[in-house]
Write a structure and sequence with these properties.
330 residues, alpha+beta, Jelly Rolls, Phage tail protein beta-alpha-beta fold, 13-stranded mixed beta sheet, 9 helices
Length: 330
């Protein structure tokens, strides 16, 4: 979640899908901690023009009050807070922020009422997880990924999931040909026609590789046409830089991560570094720009990050130094 998106959300400048992304994030521990932190920051002692005898507003109590307000429940033993100077500048900014947070909380709990049964599956950095969807379709989530879907799909209902991260789908065909849609955070939508494919969706970019069957890609505002993919097709899109291309690849290479190994076939070291950063939550520094563009091919184990780094070092003659979550490649 980016600060820029959060700021746009608080001033109602997000799209519907972006708003849903923010509201889903509020459902995580990180999202709850963010809201609480904003209250704590705004309610610091230096921001409130109080005398020594005035009580300092308690962010935790205020947070609890906002929660109870959204749920329309009564508070027990409400704390008494003296009326403060409304015309003090810090107080006005506090009121604006509290109002924005109240709107965010109201939107969040209203959203959860609209979608009370949605299931959300998250994977931590460096982990994978397998799950079965209501129609029997199988999904393998890569590290640092998130999937949202309904716990049941009615007869004739479109099957929809929302993915942020990387996943491999094995979609089942239904007797009545119900559509299966995968919504990505970069406004791309995949329509599945009974197939197996790998999807990587991070921020503004996406990479889709088809193994079996056939899928259609709706690239949203970037095109009025749908792209039909066949087995072995790779489609890449970066809606931020407006880069789109399609090429033929070996699908097994692109989805090898779910088999406990990483296979590279002409992959640049810069692309490998980006993949490791997103999947394992580390920062990788490659000072030599020519080294970033070096293409590598081969297979290394994918059991954990240290084994991956050792494999890269041995197989491609690289000097790799790791200090906590920062990795330097020379």
């Amino acid at each position: 979640m980016t600060e820029e998106l959060l700021q746009r959300y608080f001033v109602s400048q997000t799209t519907l899908e972006e708003a849903r992304q923010v509201l889903d994030w509020f459902d995580t521990e990180a999202g709850q901690a963010y809201l609480a932190h904003r209250l704590d920051t705004q309610l610091s002692p230096t921001d409130w023009p109080l005398s020594a005898s005035d009580p300092m507003p308690d962010a935790n109590r205020l947070w609890h009050r906002l929660y109870q307000t959204v749920h329309h429940t009564d508070l027990e033993q409400e704390p008494t807070v003296r009326r403060l100077n409304w015309y003090a500048t810090p107080m006005r900014w506090a009121a604006v922020l509290i109002g924005a947070l109240l709107v965010a909380l109201s939107s969040y709990w209203g959203y959860r009422q609209l979608y009370p049964d949605d299931l959300i599956r998250n994977t931590a950095y460096g982990t994978t997880s397998k799950l079965t969807l209501p129609d029997g379709s199988m999904v393998t989530l890569n590290g640092n990924s998130r999937l949202r879907y309904a716990p049941r799909w009615a007869y004739g209902q479109v099957r929809e999931v929302w993915l942020d991260g990387e996943a491999f789908f094995r979609v089942t065909h239904q007797p009545h040909h119900e559509r299966f849609l995968v919504h990505l955070p970069n406004k791309l939508t995949i329509e599945v026609l009974g197939t197996q494919f790998n999807v990587l969706a991070r921020q503004s970019r996406a990479r889709v590789v088809l193994s079996n069957g056939k899928i259609r890609l709706d690239v949203g505002q970037q095109s009025t046409e749908r792209l039909v993919m066949l087995p072995g097709d790779l489609f890449f899109a970066d809606v931020k830089t407006n880069v789109f291309y399609r090429k033929r690849v070996d699908p097994a290479v692109q989805s090898s991560w779910q088999e406990g190994k990483l296979r590279f076939d002409g992959t640049t070291l810069g692309e490998v570094a980006q993949m490791l950063e997103e999947t394992y939550g580390v920062t990788i520094v490659i000072a030599d720009t020519t080294l970033q563009k070096q293409a590598i091919s081969g297979t290394i184990p994918n059991k954990n990050l240290n084994i991956i780094l050792k494999g890269l070092s041995t197989l491609f003659d690289l000097h790799i130094v790791r200090q906590a979550n920062q990795i330097t490649i020379q």
